[in-house]
Amino acid sequence: MDIAAWFATIDLSALLPFILVGFAAQMVDGALGMAFGVICNTLLVGVMGMPPALASQRVHLVECFTTATSGISHLLHGNIDKRLFLSLVIPGVIGGVAGAYLLTSLDASVVKPFVLIYLTLIGVYLLIRGIAYPPKQKPAKVVAPLGLIGGFLDAAGGGGWGPVVTSNLLIQGVEPRKVVGSVNAAEFFLTLAISATFIWHIGITDLAGATLGLLIGGVLAAPMAAWAAKHFPARPMLILVGVVLTLTSLYGVYRAWG
Questions:
Q1: Separation CA 43–CA 52 (nearest Å)
Q2: 27, 186, 189, 217: which could form a disulfide with 19 (CB 3.0–4.6 Å)?
């Protein structure tokens, strides 16, 4: 299909809301290490009424581009801990592939609410810790298992990489901007592994509408979010992660059991 002709068919006014949502979601995700998938899936499923499987497919496709841009931006700003990144990426990909293969035999909807309750408690803990105590930075002791579990939940449960991995690394005392940068960079390889089949089967015409808008907004926001992660003080970042994780997890529990 001719690219110019395809672009001429796009209604830019209808695309703008999705660009704004993608921009806002990536600003949160790139600066705090979580929530892009949650925000976008909530819009596509809750507001537009899109089937969950199709919404997850499109969000993962968008994330292939946003995580690549975000990872490069974090690298340029010095937000990536090489050792932490390497400890996350391989187990994360393995967990993601395993989750994708087991999705057909695992009822993730039964497990997900309990994971969300756990994440809500972590969010509250991070919020209290950020308010009451200055964060004490130290190397993480448990990394690879987090990558494995986070990757598995992201594929099998439709999300979980950022909330599980970012929050637990922060609890262990790793410098917040290094956590966010390393987790975002590793997520690119995880998302690529999960989405490879989707990309192979989706043509360029299917990128119009919501998917294209989220992609444009997310890619535009990624460099600014990486800059924010570098310059944001550790304590407010810890508090914001706690707030975002608590609210999104509680909303997920409400959607699952409400």
A1: 11
A2: 217
